[in-house]
Structure formats: structure tokens, C-alpha cells
Amino acid sequence: DSGVTQTPKHLITATGQRVTLRCSPRSGDLSVYWYQQSLDQGLQFLIQYYNGEERAKGNILERFSAQQFPDLHSELNLSSLELGDSALYFCASSVAGQHSGNTIYFGEGSWLTVV
Amino acid sequence: GNSVTQMEGPVTLSEEAFLTINCTYTATGYPSLFWYVQYPGEGLQLLLKATKADDKGSNKGFEATYRKETTSFHLEKGSVQVSDSAVYFCALSDLTNQAGTALIFGKGTTLSVSS
Questions:
Q1: Strands A31-38 and A42-50, sheet pairing
Q2: A106 contact residues in B (CB cutoff 8 A)
């Protein structure tokens, strides 16, 4: 158990809909990261927050947004869903925001299926 | 840009065989290097890491040495077990964003060990 908690574990929704994925980081971790894992794209970094502020942005679509709240939990919002958004979405956390040796701990992921 | 290239899988071995999974990288600066493992139905777990050239990361019988001259971080284990069957990901820390840290992953190598 990494200590990173993600909900829901599985989600099925229709095209055009909007969903919210939730993440609670490990106790004491200030950074939260979101990754998308799909068969064709592999593991893609989406976005990082550190203590409530956006720190780094990867291949995140404009239809997707995220935020980190004062209690440090984070939410990833996915809107206008398309079939291609079906993937496993990982949340991860770490203590620091910008250290090259930073160990990043991953949750078990949220499976999103768009039908 | 930064990238990680892993050997194509799947890798199929008998129990107690020697394992090598090749990983090479392209990066600016001096990133840290990581191996993560994903067991069936689970999230990513950090297996080992190395933060500078010539460092050797090791854990659970797995080893990998940070080779700057060959830009490689090959994963090795002397005697694999059935329980090692999983997907292995090589990753590097992206240092191009001074504010944050993101991991760049390879596509993953599936290891299947039979008894």
C-alpha cells in the first residue's frame, strides 16, 4: 500500500459526459501528480500540483482540468469525454516539488471506460 | 526532448533464469533514473532508483546501474521467480521544468516467469 488513495476505482460513462476523479496523497506529501495510462500512448504525465499551485504541465488536454485543495487532496476533471479517453488514470504524490531524486508514490489508479 | 526507450516485450523466462531488461534514455542535464513495477491489477510501485552517474540501485534482488557514458539503466536479476511476473517501467525525472518534477516513462516491458 503506497498510501495514495484514489476514487473511484472503476467508472463507466457515456461520450460527452463529465467525470471527476479524486486523489488523497500520502500523509505529509505536498505534491500531487496525475498520469494517464493507455495501450497506445503508454504512461503520460498530465499535470503536477504543489501545495495548491500548479507546478508542471504535461500532455493534458484542454477538456481536462485539475486542482489541489487546501487539505492537499486533488481532483482531475474530465469533460466532453470521448472514446479515446478510456484509460487508467493514476494519481501520485511526493514530499517535494522539484527534486531530481524525488521518490514519487503511485495510487492504484482509476479505470475510466467511455462508451 | 527527454525520452526513455525500453526493450520490447514480452520477456518469457523459466524460474531461476537470469533477467536483463534494457533501458536507454535521452535527457538534458543529469536526471535521476527509476524502475517501477506494475503487478497485475495493481498500481505502480517504485522498485529502485539511482540519482547520479555510476550509482547502483538495488531492491528485492534487482539491480540497475546508472551509466552516463552509454545513457543506460538496464535492469538485472540473477534468478527470477514466478512472483516477479509483472510489467516493468523505466523512467527518468524531467529536469526541463525548473518549478516541478515529472517522470518520463518508457512503454513498459512485460515479464512472464514460468515454473
A1: antiparallel
A2: 36, 43-45
B61 Cα to chain A: minimum distance (Å): 20
Q: Name the helix (H) or strand (E) containing B110.
A: strand B109-114
CB B92 within 8 A of CB B34: yes
Residue B22 class from Cβ within 10 Å (0-12 exposed, 13-18 middle, 19+ buried)?
A: middle
Q: Report CB contact under 8 Å: B49, A97.
A: no
Rounded mean pLDDT for each run of 10 residues along chain B, 115 residues in total: 88 97 90 92 91 94 96 97 96 72 89 96
B41 or A72, greater pLDDT: A72
Interatomic CA distance for residues A91 and B44, integer angstroms? 10
